[in-house]
Amino acid sequence: MKGSAADFHRLERRLRLSGHIITRTALRIGSGGSGELDAADLPVLRDAEGYPFIPGASLKGALRSTIESLVRGADLAGETGLWACDPLLESARAGACGYHGQGGRSAVDVQHHCAVCRLMGSRVVASHARFSDALAIVSDAERAQRRIPIEVRDGVAIDRDLRTVYGGQKYDFEVVSPGTRFALEVFIENPQPWLLGLLILGFDQIRDGFTALGGFTSRGLGRVDIAWSTMVEINARDLLEGRPERTLREQELEVEFQSWRTALSARAQRRD
């Protein structure tokens, strides 16, 4: 594969993708437990003002697992570079990127990371894609009225063997209301078009409903839409010489995305 997975010493190009996540169904990303002041047994994650948000780590995790599953399922030849390692394996020979081996860190081969680790990072190489926390978009009027888009729903514990309610146990859980909008930002450093094609393919799977976000997804929660608005592109020379950033919007942005998908398709069909 051309280039190294650890090419952060030289800035060639940076991208900032901006858009929105819009909940189609209720969304639940739990806070890990309830506190004394929580109204529900299972509250959602909130910011300091009490509004829900989607952690960048949650979004990246869902996207990464989606891309890994697609790449493994395609079962393409190794020459294409489109393969996904198993990070739980104990050696690089077995297929785990970033394994140190007997030579320690100096023995790591960052030249031949799998496609997913080249984009999302491994145990020894940082991610080329950085995901910001997606904060809820709240109007001034909603903020003044303290209108927080969170609902409380009922749940019951089920005995899997008897297929009945377990001991009559009931609990309440919070969800983010359908129609809530979150600000989405993704930063990519030194991107390669075919890897960007993988990134967009993962987001397409989320938008099309094949990947859901958060918990309780088997109950219908976590379906979201992805709407991109702008892409800002910069490089080192433009920054040093004071030239303006390149900004793509709407139709131009979709043309750029399609070029990335085409590069990914060409990579998948490569046999050399």
Question: Can you put this structure into words, describing what you see?
Answer:
The protein is an alpha+beta fold. The protein has one domain. The protein has six helices and nine strands; from the N terminus they run ββααββαβββαβαβα. The strands form three sheets. A five-stranded antiparallel sheet has the order 3-7-1-8-9. A hairpin with a 4-residue loop joins strand 5 and strand 6. Helix 1 crosses helix 4 and helix 4 crosses helix 6. The longest helix has 19 residues. The radius of gyration is 21 Å and the shape is globular. The termini are close together. The model has no long low-confidence stretch (mean pLDDT 85).
Straight-line N-to-C gap: 11 Å
- Return the average pLDDT rounded to an integer: 85
Per DSSP, the total helix count is: 6
Give the tally of structural domains.
1
**Low-confidence region ranges:** none
Helix content: 25-40%
Radius of gyration: 21 Å
Shape: globular
Structural class by SSE content? alpha+beta
What series of H and E elements makes up the topology? Answer: EEHHEEHEEEHEHEH
**Could you tell me the number of beta strands?**
9
Content of β-strand: 15-25%
Largest sheet properties: 5 strands, antiparallel
Strand arrangement in the largest pleated sheet = 3-7-1-8-9
